[in-house]
Each structure stands twice: as structure tokens, then as C-alpha cells.
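Run anthranilate synthase through structure prediction, thanks.
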Amino acid sequence: MTGSSPLNLADLAASGAPFALIARDGVTVEVLTGDVVDVAALAGIPLEDAAGTPREVLALVPFRQVVERGFECHDDGAPLRCLVVDAHEALPLDAALAQLPNHRIQLADAGFDIPDEEYAAIVRRVIADEIGRGEGANFVIRRDFTATVDADAVTAGLTWFRALLEHERGAYWTFLVSTPGHLAVGASPEAHVSAKDGVVTMNPISGTFRHPVGGATAETLTAFLSSTKETEELFMVVDEELKMMSAVCTDGGRITGPHLKEMSRLTHTEYMLRGHSTMDPRDILRETMFAPTVTGSPMQNACTVITRHERSPRGYYSGVAALFTPHPTGGHDLDAPILIRTAYLVDGTLRVPVGATLVRHSDPDGEVGETHGKAAGVLGAIGAVERDHIAEAVELDEDAPTAQPRILADDPQIAALLSSRNARLASFWLNPQDAGAHGPFAGRTALVVDAEDRFTTMLAHQLRHLGFDVTILPWHAVDVAAIDVADLVISGPGPGDPRETGSPRMARMREVVRARLASGRPLLAVCLSHQILAAELGLGLAPLESPHQGLQKTVDVFGMAASIGFYNTFTVRVPAGTTEIGSTEIAADASGDVYALRGPGYASVQGHLESILSRDGLETLERLVGHALAS
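Sure, done. The structure for anthranilate synthase is below.
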């Protein structure tokens, strides 16, 4: 830490200079001051000065930066704003509270920008038109609570920051960032990504339990934790973040948890993912933009869906606040919470963006209620609306700190219920993973064709574990004439209707499958490509009555029962009882829905063997790959 004179927050606020306050250890408030620089891209974040000396930078990364990954968005031009830190000091928490203002900031003209009925209608459309057409497993659609504020922005921000420190608990970062023309203050529960000493950590959080009047109890929390929707919602975001971990970590990423994230008015469920990486932290940040908990999955198509259904740009909502700190041995550590549970104040207008995660069995009215709960959580925490009393709280003066309730995660019944979730998951991702230099397919090469679903990064990691030297190429970069160089081609999964004729992506994936079949060289087709392969073989395709997005099923795969995770809206369908057509063997259920195919030089699977939901995924993958290579 630097800085020698006693720190006075009132003087700092009055100076008009840019600054940031961060509370993340429970005992101190970090105070960062410096100059603001706006840059166009993550690579431009100025981690060194002109002489090459490392420096600390706090960057506010807006949602629009997804354009760096080629994804769609409503582009509002929100700047990638960097506070280049000249001084980084620390105040004891008590000393900071003593200096912060403690006044009620009045709101006027308060309400949501989208009425409840209209938001519920959007939810219905997304379920029917997006999830129902195979565009993805889940999507987060936001709306904004807005109000006018007739008060000095910095004074309001400092007041709200104090309220968050006193009344919110369980936050990963409680923060205030004040830069010219823009103020953000919030208490983010979720670390999106961090990198320290070569260890990358991600923290997927999903499922939102709104505490009832009187507070959460073990009984009310048990009902939440027993919800199929909430459980599957968390599993889906873990899958999506493991895609990112597999892209940046040589060891793919290991899951620990689940845990409870207990806050004052809401409780969430979470996992921790850890892996090792030597990448520049700016590149790690780019490859992990942004959290599926606030976008959806698959990520690229989620951005397209957001653009279709949200009426305005997101600004900084669902972006990150990224603190890059020089490491003593070189390089920078990264600490980047997601910008949620955050209030923005610009030109006298307060904006609190909130979103709900929409899945195949979402209830529109329930999702409306979730946005109300999340907005109330922020507004109540900052004292903008009346705060709820929580369980076991002592009645105090309204502006005094709230008494802390007992930690529900310590309840034996709750702990057992959380732990039981892992019985459904693949041990491969729960245990340490080694490189596959001595795997059964060591010395072989594999080309994975990505059809806009980065499950391919997890699949590639499993293939490396089995010994393959793996290359991943996006569908549009594949030279169909050159794919026969690889010992094995894996035609990958992706969103959308495989029957669509006007899609360049579908056309290219059909070319890949058709060319590889014609060559007789080994081919494995997954999910979307399984459906494309089936169509090439003359089998029929049909939409499912209810999409299998994030569904775990135990199915027979050529004589062996396999527990597999499914993310499909369409299926290959044959007459009930069909086990082979020509030279193609068929694994199907009693209704005729096909789960796997195999024939001379090829195999396919409808499910995602790489998913955490595929308990028997790695073994099934080895069997199918072995068949393709052997024949």
C-alpha cells in the first residue's frame, strides 16, 4: 500500500478526482486514486507505463466488450474505463464508516422500465421461440429499476456504500467507483474470474432464494434446495463456465462445492472451479467474457438472444470490475467480480439492472417476482426502500447495523442436501485431471469442429485426457477438403434447428459430416452433428415435445447403461424397436428417440459426454471413439 498522509474521504470526494472504494476482506476499505484512461479493447488496458514498469489498474468492463469475441450486442459505446492507480491505501472498516455520510437519499419517479405484464410476455416468448427452437439451454433477460435522484452523485454514492457495508453480508466485493460523469456502487456476490500465482478460479452462482418475511430458516431453504429447476439451473451454469475454464486452463478445471452464498435478503447456491493457466490475465478475461449466470448458454447464441429480446443496451450490467495488481515475481494477478447487484447514477438518474434466468420450465410470473426480489435486495441494502427484518434480528434503530442470523449452511440437513447433489455429477470434473500422454489413444490427432457451442473445449480436454493431440476450429474456418489429415474428426454441437436450409453454419456442418463419411475416415458426431449425421444416413428428425435442456437421463448405449446429460430440442427418431438400418447400429429408447449411432468408421451421440451431468461420459466417449477408429 502507498500513501503517507491521513486519508480523508470527505476531502477526496470534494476534490472531484476519480477514486474507488473496495471492501473485500471484511476488515478494511481499500481506497484507490489515480487517472482515468478509456481504451478500446482489453489488450489496451495499460498494465505498464512507458518505461515498462508494472502498474495497478482497475478496469470497468462493459457488456459491449463481447464484440471482441465476435458476439452480438446493443452497442451503447460504454467505455472500457481504466483507473490507473497512483495510490492504493487502506482504511480500517470502522474508520471508513465514521467518515461516510449517513443520510437518506430520496428517490422520485421510481419503477421498472418494463411493466410486469410485458416482462412476463418476454419470458413466454423466450421459452417458446428460443429454448423451444433449440437456440440454447437458458437465457438471462434483464430489465431496469429506475428513479431520479436530486442529490450530489458522489454524496449519494458514499451514503449507499456505507449502507451496503452496514446492512449487506456475503458480498464478494462491496464497492464504489466514481469517475467523470459516472458512478457505480454495489455489493456483488459473485467473483467471475480471478488469477493468482497461475491458479484461475471461477465462481458460478445460480438459483435465487428470496428470504421470506422473518428471514430464512432451514425448513424454507430445504424446499428451495429440493427444487429441480434451481438445481438444474446451477448445473447448467457450471457446465457453461467449465467451457471457459477448459479454454484457459491446461488442466481443464476442477469443481468443488456446492456451497451456499448467504446474503442479507437472498441466498444462492454456488460451486468453485479451479485450474492452472499461464495466459496473460487480459486474455483470461477475454476468453471468459461473460458469466453465463447473467447471459445464458451457449454464450455466443445467448448474446444474440439478448439482442433480440432486450430493448436497450446493458451498459456495465453483467460486465466486470477487473483489478489487475502487479505480482512480486512478474505479471499481474486478476480479481474480477461480476457487475450485478449494482446501482448506477448518471445525470441524476439511478439505474438498477436486474435479470432472471429463463429455462425450459420457468414460470413467467415467478421470473417477474425474481426481478422484484433482486431489485429490492439492492434498494433495501442501500436504504433506498424499507429494509426487511431478517430472522433473529434484534429491533434496532433503522440506520444501525442489522444483527447477523445464524449460518444455515452449518445445519446438518442443509449440508447433506447440498452434498447429495454431487452424486449426480461426473467424477471426472470433481477429481484432479492429468494430461493424457499415456492415454489409450496417445499419438493420435483429433480435429474438433466448433458449431458455436464451446462444449467443444470440454470435449477437447477429455480427448487430450485420452491421449489425443487436439485442435479446435470454428465451423467457418474449416477447410473441408483438408480435414482428412486428422486421425479423428469430431463434428461438434451447436444451437439451432438442424433442418434449417438457409443457415451457413448448418450448411458447413453438413459439408463436414458428408465429406468425412465419404472418405471413410473416423468420425464422431455430437448433439447437433449427431442429428446432421442421422439426416445424411436417411433417418428422420423431429422436435421434442419438451426440450431436453440440462436434462440427465440414463440410457442404453449399445448394451451398456450410461448416465448422460442432454441439451437438445430436436431428436433423431426411428420406428420403435429399430436397432439397425443398413450398416448403422441404432441405440434408441422404447419410443424410437435415438441416443447414439455407430457404423463403419463413424459413431455419434445425442448427449453431451463432456457435461458434468454425464456420470458415464468419459467411458462412453472412449467406447464410441474406439469404435470409430477401429472400424
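Confidence is low (pLDDT under 50) at residues 389-405.
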